[in-house]
TrEMBL record, chains A, B:
It comes from Candida oxycetoniae. Belongs to the class-II aminoacyl-tRNA synthetase family. This is glycine--tRNA ligase. Its EC number is 6.1.1.14. It catalyses: 2 ATP + H(+) = P(1),P(4)-bis(5'-adenosyl) tetraphosphate + diphosphate.
Amino acid sequence: MSVVKDTNIPFSRESLEQLLKRRFFYAPSFEIYGGVAGLFDFGPPGCAFQNNVIDVWRKHFILEEDMLEVDTTMLTPYEVFKTSGHVDRFSDWMCKDLKTGEIFRADHLVEEVLESRLKGDKSARGESVKDEEDEDKKKRKKKVKEIKNIKLEDDVVEEYENILAQIDGYSGPQLGELIIKHNITNPATGGALEPPIEFNLMFDTAIGPAGNLKAFLRPETAQGQFLNFNKLLEFNNDKMPFASASIGKSFRNEIAPRAGLLRVREFLMAEIEHFVDPEDKSHPKFDDVKDVKLRFLPKKVQESGSNDLIEMSVGEAVSCGMVDNETLGYFIARIYAFLIKIGCDPNRLRFRQHMSNEMAHYASDCWDAELHTSYGWIECVGCADRSAYDLSVHSARTGEKLVSRKALSEPRTVEEFEIELAKKKFGPKFRKDAATVEKWLLSRTQCELEDFAKKLEEHGRIVARIDGVEGAVELDPELIKIEKVKRTEHVREFTPNVIEPSFGIGRIVYSVFEHQYWARKDDAERGVLSLPPLVAPTKVLLVPLSNSSELQPIVKKVSSVLRKEKIPFKIDDSSASIGKRYARNDELGTPFGITIDFESAKDDSVTLRERDSTKQVRGSISEVVEAIKEITYSGVDWTKGTASLKPFNS
Amino acid sequence: MSVVKDTNIPFSRESLEQLLKRRFFYAPSFEIYGGVAGLFDFGPPGCAFQNNVIDVWRKHFILEEDMLEVDTTMLTPYEVFKTSGHVDRFSDWMCKDLKTGEIFRADHLVEEVLESRLKGDKSARGESVKDEEDEDKKKRKKKVKEIKNIKLEDDVVEEYENILAQIDGYSGPQLGELIIKHNITNPATGGALEPPIEFNLMFDTAIGPAGNLKAFLRPETAQGQFLNFNKLLEFNNDKMPFASASIGKSFRNEIAPRAGLLRVREFLMAEIEHFVDPEDKSHPKFDDVKDVKLRFLPKKVQESGSNDLIEMSVGEAVSCGMVDNETLGYFIARIYAFLIKIGCDPNRLRFRQHMSNEMAHYASDCWDAELHTSYGWIECVGCADRSAYDLSVHSARTGEKLVSRKALSEPRTVEEFEIELAKKKFGPKFRKDAATVEKWLLSRTQCELEDFAKKLEEHGRIVARIDGVEGAVELDPELIKIEKVKRTEHVREFTPNVIEPSFGIGRIVYSVFEHQYWARKDDAERGVLSLPPLVAPTKVLLVPLSNSSELQPIVKKVSSVLRKEKIPFKIDDSSASIGKRYARNDELGTPFGITIDFESAKDDSVTLRERDSTKQVRGSISEVVEAIKEITYSGVDWTKGTASLKPFNS
């Protein structure tokens, strides 16, 4: 169904948000207790819409690609995230106002203050300040309330612009230096700030009555999938490539969340982990998508200081090397198809590659599907190549092999470093630490072994620090031998690489609201949410023209047909006018209306109304329901779906 | 589809559990890190089964009854659970072995030790000890490893039996007395135990960077629904009764979970909160269910020391007052229909009423749907009448009215206590506490006001302790006046009562596995999971007879038809024998097989196999797919669904 939006009313975020709260799409959680920043509840229409989006996601990805869906726990022991790197690196930098106790996210604060100074400078120079210019930054409500018109030196302007271009790349101490150098203070009070400290974004808790098993709420569903890798591979009869998938809540203890559904502390994710042979990242279904044309913003363009999109087919993008491989390209195209299906505007969708300094610690490459909203371009789907990072670190930590094996067409000779331990000497020398030292040595990588071999040769010993062992550990050739060894292999054993499309469902849901919200011509009050029928919370509004008992049997009849067909519907038999009843449901995104009038009582005919065009057609109950089914679930358009029905003018 | 189980193999929990783990229905979470008790991951077939159960639940309850589904957060601030009573009362009693540090759940320990002594006594008396007798208690792995044959005095036996009959009703200090009196120690070491202390079962964490907003992970989804009551009522156009519903994870920090999926720390719940007028708990659709015959175990029977079930219709149960009201009866019948639909054995299902001493702190009446398993009778669905408890306490705490209003057919006169404050005197007297005292006074119940009025009259003052105010607060008639006042009301304002059907999905899922697991005649190795087609993880296994390229086009053709019809299927084109391939899928609960042979290549005909009976029929691709659809999604039985297909003997 193509959306016809006959309007002359400009988009207003405020009126959309009022609608979403008034009709309980969502609301701040615990509102009667004053609410908690970054926590939101979905009411009936929001929840139904979200469920439908998930249902489409499951069919589009899991069913279509035979993915292995798993449901893993959110409670996760400390060790898992220590290994994955989240304990050390999943954090933001915050600084505190010593006096008021107020806490700021350091990068956001520096960014906002410098931006406001640049704006003040422009005003002082008499240049007009376009609001659009910094729409990307409106993601959060401003801390800086007032812009002061102060002219800056030209070299200062240049320096600020330079800082802003790389704002996502600074470390905490660097942010601290910027804060001092540029005299950045609490914008509200001018108060001094403490140097930035790291704040880990995971919520922590403890499992069990003794309280000594430290745990976190997961910040992503991915780890649960990686830890089950061996079971999944076995379930898949040891065949590669394959993908697992998981839909569930994750958590981030944001420092100061302030952008509605776009930055929340508890959120629904849908994540795919597609495991591939690092030597073969081709995709068998790549041909199906290679002609899909998309708009890309690659790393190189951004690094040259531009935001110009490059439009090309996925096939071209892969063959020219801009997108690294077919599997990555395939998922980018499938993500696009999914987003369009659930109501994203293709003209407000781009794929942006991460720059090297903004990538998550586990990623080797990443393309984000970004949706354009009144807050700017919003990252809604990440499509990262996590390489062999996660499987490798968990394997090294637990001693459990997480690998796939492939018979070689021809045997091959490999040279590898092998380590040999004089185990009998370990006990006397290391006593209670012997097992730890052994385990540590046996889980070293090839690179590390090469390094050890060199050291042993050059210095006659290795000195190492080992987790869980006090003091330095010294090893000499009496204890270990490291040699390069030739072996003939018939089977290649490898740690799979992972391509991870990761969807933030709440952000997508909010963006669709923005893309599909409009108001009818000359009437800003008559908001419409043109949600695609497939994902609309309710598909049909049943409207009897009057409360007359004559119409009741027809209402019952239509209801029972709709219920039998499992088409979600609502009845509105209130005394409000037909127009008012439809207007209320336009706000809820209900795509169809069935009007029951006195003619219906005579011949079982009813009127079918389409939400966006307000066009009406008439036919028998079964014809009308059939049209609704075809348009909603089979993707037929309105004209074709209602071809056999008569036009109707009320 | 009626299940035909041609077997002579007795049920074995061990072989079922092996199957469930081998085929990755579920597995301990973080197994490569050693696992965490009470946390489990669902693998592909378990996850798909669970999703299908949820899908049926949503259609059976939410869609059928027009319930308002919400999705609320798991992170919940301290205040909410302080008010709801969970901070003070949602706990178990635990005791610690001073020496080993081992922690026991006090009631379970007392129960287990006394039971083992009674068993030892029976053995010593030469009586046979039936295992069935205490199957209810097998829910957890035993702490007591060895039963000693020691004869007890007759009065001791009687005392132990008495204690066990009321074991769910003891307070912590009472359990402590029992432990001392009956010399109960650590069963493994004989070591002394510390007196029981209360352990709150909620996981705690903190929200925000300052760490001062204390929060819990919810132990139930209910509170999120209660807190949104006003928004839900408004969404429902202020009409009563109505129900909200929520599907999501909840958490319980169990002291020592040891019964697989039956006692876990993170679990999926589906909860309904049906809000009714306390003066009218009739249900408009009660007539539809009144003839459903169920097996009840009411409070009175249990209190008389019996476990005999009473079989009667829901209509009778309500009219004789055993089940309190129509709404409760309606939901009991609907719960029954749901459980049967997804594969529970009706002969292993009963409704047990809670005894007064075991009810949750918020409940005024409760019936559990219990399923019988090898662990005994397991509570899987609670159907509680929470009365006005939750809405009242949240309203009192927040000052937000959580009520419904109903126009009275005739105005009526009511007498109520009203409180009048001499506000001008509050400031000078209470200073900074004035607002707190005022708010506290204005949120008192009628009973409390009556009590105050009496005290004011008798003693000329009231002395109260108020949260947040230091010291006692003294109030006299100069400050407050409390009088009984007559008013004429045209509208009745009331706090709705709540009927809450609450489903533990994991427990139901596990029970269905037990109810539907069996092994083929004379072959204990050939396990079958007879999951109903509607909820089976995969509906169809596609089996080409050979790997010949001749059969490939038919495999593709059948696949594309199944995919178009959105019927989940898998292809097994491995070189294993047909029999072996089917056996593997019997374990996965796949109800249908389509065999593709060389005949298929000629005339497009295929064979359809039914899992439980292994019956086969033959027809065209479209006929066979139509039969699968009818049986799976429309509930048609095998005989009727395949009437037009030809019998086939391979």
